[in-house]
Design a protein that fits this description.
globular; five-stranded mixed β-sheet; 23% helix; Ribosomal Protein S5, domain 2; four-stranded antiparallel β-sheet; 3 helices
């Protein structure tokens, strides 16, 4: 597989560190407490939030308990390839578990005692970076529902390619993808591809099978916040929440890749934050009336 052409561009014309076009729409479902449509490239996700509402259970419930219920469904027309039996449900279960644990770290549960929040995610189309798109869509839907969050949860998928093998003791990190030699002279053998598309991410929790392109990668989920409330430069910082790795990757490579993923998460955070502000201005114009 030709990963980069002679000009150092990917198969969709992007640079390795370049994000695809992102489109966000908030408040599409008026019957829900919060909803968001998130599109990154051709990956399209619709997230809907109901709640917070009372937990209906006969079992005793502590005052600090909050149930975050995530359900993921996939449209029949979302993927061109037919998934193997059982693989699709397994991938959806993985996304659900990662999403629930990640959201628990940012939702201010102490303000929602004995409550339940239901998050329904519909995957309309798959074209890579499905897990990260579900995380970003859920963040927008929760913000639209007015759920108190300490930080905004942002995610990005990253692929790792190497022009040569990296020895790590008895193990070797190998990649068979072709890369132009002139592009890797100053890259120490590693190239990080931000925001993988369908051909690069065919199988990384994408609804069918695991990655068949031999392209190691990972999905980073982070809390993005401003470094200081008094910082006039609006410097952003990322705090790691979860890291889903799809290949055996040396630790030193993961550290370098995480820095690139953090920069991408900061860019995505800026777009999500602007979408939330725009939605607030449109829905509450009286707040800004002079």
């Amino acid at each position: 597989m030709q990963l980069l052409n002679i000009y150092g561009l990917r198969n969709d014309g992007r640079k390795p560190e370049e994000l695809r076009k992102i489109r966000c729409e908030i408040g599409l479902n008026k019957q829900a407490n919060g909803s968001a449509y998130y599109q990154m490239g051709n990956t399209k996700i619709l997230a809907t939030v109901y709640g917070p509402h009372q937990i209906f259970s006969k079992q005793p419930i502590s005052n600090e308990s909050v149930i975050i219920n995530c359900q993921i469904s996939c449209a029949s027309f979302s993927n061109n390839s037919k998934p193997k039996k059982g693989k699709s449900n397994q991938s959806h279960f993985e996304i659900t578990q990662i999403l629930q644990k990640s959201l628990e770290s940012v939702i201010m549960v102490h303000l929602l005692p004995k409550c339940q929040i239901d998050i329904f995610i519909e995957i309309l189309q798959m074209d890579g970076s499905v897990l990260s798109s579900c995380v970003n869509a859920s963040t927008l839907a929760l913000a639209d529902a007015g759920i108190p969050m300490s930080h905004m949860l942002v995610s990005c998928t990253l692929g790792i390619s190497c022009a040569s093998n990296i020895s790590t003791g008895q193990q070797k990190f190998q990649c068979s993808l072709e890369i132009p030699e002139h592009y890797t002279e100053n890259m120490e053998g590693n190239i990080f591809l931000i925001d993988l598309n369908g051909s690069e991410d065919s199988g990384m929790v994408s609804g069918n099978v695991r990655n068949n392109n031999n392209l190691p990668g990972m999905c980073l989920i982070a809390k993005v916040k401003q470094s200081s409330e008094t910082d006039s430069t609006n410097t952003l910082s990322c705090e790691l929440v979860a890291l889903e790795i799809y290949h055996r990757i040396p630790f030193q490579v993961i550290e370098a890749a995480q820095e690139s993923a953090n920069l991408a998460c900061q860019k995505i955070y800026t777009l999500l934050n602007e979408s939330c502000k725009y939605n607030y201005v449109v829905n509450y114009p009286e707040k800004f009336a002079t």
